Amino acid sequence: MTPGQLLLIAFGSLAISIAIGFRMSRTWLILTLIGTISGLGAALRVLLLGENWAWENGFREHAFRLGGESLHLRLDGLSALFLVLVSVVGGAGAIYSREYWSDHHYPSSAPRGRAWWSVLLLSMGLLLMISNGLHFLIAWEIFAISGYFLIMLDNQRAAVRSAGWLYLAASHAGTMCLFAFFAALAANTGSWELGPMRDHPELAPLFWLALFGFGMKAGFFPLHIWLPSAHANAPSHVSAIMSGVAIKMGLYGIVRFSGWLPVPAAAGWVVITLGAISALLGITFAFAQNDFKRLLAYCSVENMGIIMIGVGGALLAVSHGDAPWGQLAIAGALLHVWNHGAFKSLLFFGAGSVLHATGTKDMSRLGGLWRAMPWTAGLFTLGALAVSGLPPLNGFISEWLVYLGLFDAVTSKASFAWVAMPAVIMLAMAGALAAASFAKAGAMIFLGAPRTKPAARAHECGIGMRGPMVALACVCAAIGLMPVLFWPAVSRAVGSWYPAWSALEMPVPLFTLGKVHVLLAIVLSFVAWGLWRKARANGLRRGMTWDCGYAAPTARMQYTSASFAGIVSGWFRWALQPERQTRKPHGYFPSTAMRLERIPETVLERIIGPISVLVMKVSTGVRSLQHGRLQFYILYIVVGLVALGIFVVLGGAP
Amino acid sequence: MIVIDLILRLAFWLLLAPLLPGIINKVKAWVAGRRGPPVLQLYYDLAKLWRRGVVLSNLASPAFIAGPAIGWMALTLAAMLMPLGPAGSALSFRGDVLLLIYLLALARFCTAWAAMETGSAFEGMGAAREVSYAVLAEAAIIAAVLSLSVQTGSVSLATMLSPSAGAGAVLLAAGLFVVLLAENCRVPFDDPNTHLELTMIHEAMVLDHSGPPLAAILHGASIKLLLFSALLVQAVFPMGDLEPLAAAGTLAAGVLLVTLAVGLVESLLARLAFRHVPLLLTTAFLLCLFALLVAWKGGAQ
Question: Interface pTM (ipTM) of the complex?
Answer without folding.
Answer: 0.95
